[in-house]
Amino acid sequence: MGFLIYFLILILVPLWAQMKVKSTYKKYSKVPVSTGITGAESARRILDDNGLQHVKVVETQGFLSDHYNPLTKTVHLSPNNYHGHSIAGAAVAAHEVGHAIQDKESYAFLRFRHALVPVANIGSNLSWIFIMIGLFTSMTGMFMLGIILMAAAVLFQVITLPVEFNASSRAMDQIVSSGIIRNDEEREARKVLNAAAMTYVAAAAVALLELLRLVFMFTGMQSDD
Fold first, then answer.
1. Catalytic status, residue 59
2. How far apart, in whole angstroms, are the C-alpha atoms of residue 63 and residue 56?
3. What are the sequence ranges of the domains in the chain?
4. Dihedral, CA atoms, 172, 177, 183, 189, nearest 10 degrees?
5. Whose CA is closest to 86, among 146, 13, 24, 153?
6. d(CA 28, CA 84)
7. According to the 3-state scheme, what is the secondary structure of the chain?
8. What is the pLDDT of residues 129-166, one digit of tens each?
9. Among 41, 59, 96, 185, which one carries the catalytic annotation?
10. Can you tell me where the transmembrane regions are (predicted)?
11. Could you tell me the pTM of the whole model?
């Protein structure tokens, strides 16, 4: 029964977070921003205000596929946010520009996250191979190696939290100071950003929970030897 509840948590928490962000985004994507500018125009204005004229704003395909690419110095906005005139679009665009500002200022957590990318990729791709080998062969060394690799991937998700929260904080400051939204629209914009942040919180929480479960399993294997 305990394992059933545990796995339900692993499944339901991320699903709840995804439903929350989609429903919040859908609601406020229908609310026009008072200034009437598009997400692309919002991003361009904030970039220019922060001396980032060299950073491009481009349209990318997909639903909520918005992101900032630090290698190409490009803000990618999904079609609804690029062309739309909504509070949700302005908030999302400002959030991605927040990452560009972090990049410009060499924000410590962003730099740390970038440095972790190769290790985190290896960890997420190989950790379960070593864990399963260790589990079926009772080789605790292999199991421990899998846990270490998974820990690197989990650390990446944990470090992502301050990066995302900081980008959202910058986004709120920028869309207000640049005149993109009025003061009475701040509440709606903040709801969009908070809902998006919950997906990262849920992912990190689930990853930490799974890592702890494996650590307890390893401790049990050690005590059995």
1. no
2. 20
3. 2-224
4. -20
5. 24
6. 11
7. CHHHHHHHHHHHHHHHHHHHHHHHHHHHCCCECCCCCCHHHHHHHHHHHCCCCCCEEEECCCCCCCEEECCCCEEEECHHHHHCCEHHHHHHHHHHHHHHHHHHCCCHHHHHHHHHHHHHHHHHHHHHHHHHHHHHHCCHHHHHHHHHHHHHHHHHHHHHHHHHHHHHHHHHHHHHHCCCCCHHHHHHHHHHHHHHHHHHHHHHHHHHHHHHHHHHHHHHHHHHC
8. 999 998 888 888 999 999 999 999 999 999 999 999 99
9. 96
10. 128-156, 192-216
11. 0.88
Pairwise CA distance, residues 118 & 141, whole Å: 23
Pairing mode, strands 56-59 and 74-77: parallel
**Distance from C-alpha of 204 to C-alpha of 82, rounded to nearest angstrom:** 29
Q: Tell me if 60 sits within 8 A of 39, measured CB to CB.
A: no
pLDDT in tens, 194-218: 999 999 999 999 899 889 988 888 8
Asked if 75 contacts 68 with a C-beta cutoff of 8 angstroms, the reply is yes
